[in-house]
Design a protein that fits this description.
Blueprint (H helix, E strand, L loop, with lengths): L2 H19 L7 H17 L23 E3 L8 E3 L2 H15 L8 E7 L2 E8 L2 E7 L5 E3 L2 H4 L17 E9 L2 H14 L7 H9 L4 H5 L4 E11 L7 H10 L9 E3 L5 H12 L7 E8 L2 H7 L1 E2 L2 E2 L2 E5 L3 E14 L5 E12 L2 E7 L3 H7 L2 E2 L2 E6 L6 E7 L5 E2 L13 E3 L6 E3 L6 H12 L11 H9 L14 H5 L6 H13 L2 E3 H7 L7 H11 L2 H5 L3 H5 L6 H12 L1 H12 L3 E3 L15 E5 L7 H10 L3 E3 L8 E4 L5 H9 L2 E4 H7 L5
Helix pairs in contact: 1-2, 12-13, 16-17
2-(butylsulfanyl)adenosine binds next to strand 3, strand 8 and strand 13.
Length: 668
């Protein structure tokens, strides 16, 4: 105990509270800095004095090596969304009906929906103990070291009677000013530009080094409790927020209580939508909550969201700017995508100067010409898009698809029945080849261990790797002569190329990067045709015989093998020794699920998703990522969400994990 030291700690914590929580500093920056220095000097001279409450401990932690997992004792829920006033009303009318009371008897509390990251912070007897991200709601990641650097998060609660355990839940976010400062610096230093404050906040929170996070000016505002023991009882949600403010946290600005009727909802919503631009933080909607904790607990939860709260989201943000030019980008599969170059415009917190135009059909649909004034839209993280022409430009110029690929100058063609235009350079087009080589060598496909993306890029840029066939003529000297490489690492690359030569037909077919022919469809095609010659000479009609292959995929396969340049490359690869055994003529296993499509969703307790997928596939089923009318069955694990809802609404058969295990006599 050293009273002078304790006084310093208490003083700085109080000043931090005034500055970061109350926005009301009582001392000058100079006095603050001087006092902080005094504290650091005292701690350096007397390390035994340092307490957990000391403001120096906010950045005192060492950088971490990995994020520890933290289980949430009380599950962290998400919110259902509403996109209109009607949906919001309906939600609360349904709640009132379930409670058997009149809707006008509901007291509703509204808070801005902060656009950041959900964080849980634990306090033991009033002292900051640890913090975690939401994760999947059940298990999050330990981010104590970065959350502790947030000055609006108290290290010690300002109450003489702290609860035994207090878990504060709220949103950690980056205020707009901090975000702009960060990106200004990033521009100067040529480092990564963040798309929006939420991504920037996530980047800061997931830093291994707390010192970096500390410089990012994050904030935290609570919106509720998780675990809570040994404190006084509350009857209303709004009381909890008042209490949290009293013990040291920031309060969400612009919260309102609506009692007795929903009528004021709409006005408030529009006031907030208008105020949004001027708020110091990004908000993406309003959260409405039933204020009575009794009613909240009577209603409970459904799936992963409460039945007593809903988020009404703001619509996407739009603005008008001018279309200056259109460029065409060539992707891995050769598709030319038109990209709008725009007069830069600040929309929803970011400067937008490019937007995707998808394809020529979209340009035609919009009636778009260069020089037009266009409305652009940003919704969350989605790439900005042009939604309509507002005014036609005085000297407007039509947008024309180039006849030749801007990269390799091969002819550009449109496949019949498709919106996309493609470069016909195939495996020879440079825009496609680096990406195609990466795809070919990747773990899922040819699995060439030591030939990673970076090395491919260097070898592609210096002209050594032009196509996937060049992988097999690589020499030790091609690699050993590169910076950071030597004879040994070069030999490792050649060894892994050699080791990868024995493969499977389906894997090889998938590795070629034919558009729409991914891991799954390649497997089906290989199983159906059994050998490469049969696939290469298959007609559109033959390919369409395979249950899971549609016209687009069939067309792409036919066109790929029709191209003599592609055939020549395959020939070279096979000559170099890449080999496989033809697929079995007998289907694998009992194939009792042949022709069926299954979907896995939620968390499975007894096996991983990959194990369940492998099991279904071994029985002949296709395992898809989304539910449609054609889905045979959905296996719903713990916390299944929208896929389960969709299956139920479409009347698709659903089984839980236990039923799934029983159905196939699986012994996990
Ligand atoms: S309440 C059980 N209140 O929105 C209800 N959430 O889309 C828990 N969010 O995961 C959430 N502002 O991270 C609540 N005032 C607010 C909020 C808020 C932002 C976030 C939160 C949640 C997400 C759901």
């Amino acid at each position: 105990m050293n009273p002078a030291y304790n006084d310093l700690v208490a003083k700085i914590n109080q000043w931090d509270h005034e500055y970061y929580v109350l926005d009301n500093p009582s001392v000058s920056d100079a006095e603050y800095d001087q006092t902080f220095r005094k504290l650091l000097e005292m701690e350096a001279a007397n390390p035994e004095l340092v307490t957990a409450e000391s403001p120096s401990q906010r950045v005192g932690a060492k950088p971490i090596d990995e994020f520890r997992k933290i289980e949430h004792t009380v599950k962290m829920l998400s919110l259902a969304n509403a996109f209109s006033l009607e949906e919001t009303y309906d939600f609360f009318e349904k709640a009132a009906k379930e409670l058997d009371i009149s809707p006008s008897a509901l007291d509703i509390f509204s808070e801005p929906k902060l656009d950041g990251l959900a964080i849980s912070i634990h306090y033991d007897k009033g002292l900051f103990s640890y913090a975690a991200t939401r994760g999947d709601g059940q298990v999050g990641e330990d981010v104590t070291h970065t959350i502790k650097t947030i000055k609006s998060v108290p290290i010690k609660l300002s109450t003489a009677n702290p609860p035994e355990t207090l878990e504060v839940r709220g949103e950690a976010f980056m205020p707009k000013a901090a975000f702009e400062k960060l990106n200004r610096l990033a521009l100067q230093n040529n480092s990564k530009i963040f798309v929006n404050p939420r991504n920037a906040a996530a980047g800061a929170i997931r830093q291994m080094n707390p010192k970096i996070a500390a410089g990012r000016d994050l904030q935290f505002i609570p919106y509720g409790l998780g675990e809570y023991e040994g404190g006084h009882r509350f009857t209303r949600h709004s009381e909890i927020l008042d209490y949290l403010h009293k013990i040291g946290f920031r309060k969400n600005p612009h919260c309102y209580a609506f009692s007795g009727s929903f009528d004021k909802f709409e006005k408030n919503y529009y006031v907030m939508e208008g105020a949004r631009e001027k708020l110091p933080m990004q908000i993406d909607g309003i959260v409405y909550k039933i204020d009575s904790l009794n009613l909240q607990s009577s209603l409970g939860f459904i799936a992963r969201s409460p039945k007593w709260a809903i988020a009404r989201k703001f619509p996407a943000q739009n603005d008008v700017t001018q279309l200056l030019a259109v460029d065409f980008q060539v992707g891995r599969t050769g598709v030319l995508t038109p990209v709008a170059r725009l007069e830069p415009v600040f929309v929803g917190g970011v400067t937008v100067s490019n937007a995707t135009l998808h394809n020529m059909d979209e340009i035609e649909r919009l009636g778009l010409c260069i020089g037009d004034s266009v409305e652009i839209q940003r919704a969350g993280d989605v790439i900005p898009k042009v939604v309509k022409v507002v005014t036609k430009g005085a000297h407007r110029k039509p947008i024309v698809m180039p006849g030749r690929c801007p990269v390799c100058h091969a002819a550009v063609e449109r496949t019949e029945g498709q919106a996309a235009f493609r470069c016909t350079g195939g495996l020879l087009c440079a825009a496609q080849s680096a990406e195609r080589i990466r795809h070919y060598a990747s773990r899922k496909f040819m699995n060439i261990n030591n030939l990673g993306a970076k090395l491919i890029e260097v070898l592609h840029n210096n002209g050594t790797l032009k196509t996937i066939a060049d992988i097999y003529t690589l020499k030790i000297s091609d690699i050993a002569s590169l910076e950071g490489q030597g004879e040994k690492s070069a030999q490792n690359v050649l060894d892994s190329i050699e080791a990868s030569k024995k493969t499977k037909l389906g894997t090889f077919l998938g590795s070629l990067g034919i558009n729409e022919v991914g891991e799954e469809s390649a497997k089906y095609i290989a199983r159906y045709f059994k050998n490469l010659e049969a696939i290469a000479s298959a007609t559109f009609e033959e390919l369409m015989q395979i249950p899971d292959i549609g016209p687009v995929t069939a067309n792409n396969v036919v066109n790929f093998f029709k191209d003599s340049k592609n055939r020549a490359i395959i020939e070279k690869i096979m000559k170099a020794g890449v080999n496989w055994e033809d697929e079995d003529t007998e289907p694998v296993g009992k194939q009792m699920l042949a022709g069926q499509t299954w979907v896995l969703t939620g968390t499975l307790q007894h096996m991983s998703r990959d194990e369940a997928k492998a099991c279904l596939e071994s029985l002949g089923a296709k395992v898809a990522g989304s539910v449609s009318k054609k889905t045979t069955c959905v296996v719903a694990g713990r916390d299944a969400g929208s896929k389960l809802d969709k299956a139920q609404s479409l009347g698709v058969k659903v089984m839980d994990e236990a039923a799934f295990l029983a159905e196939f006599d699986l012994d996990f």
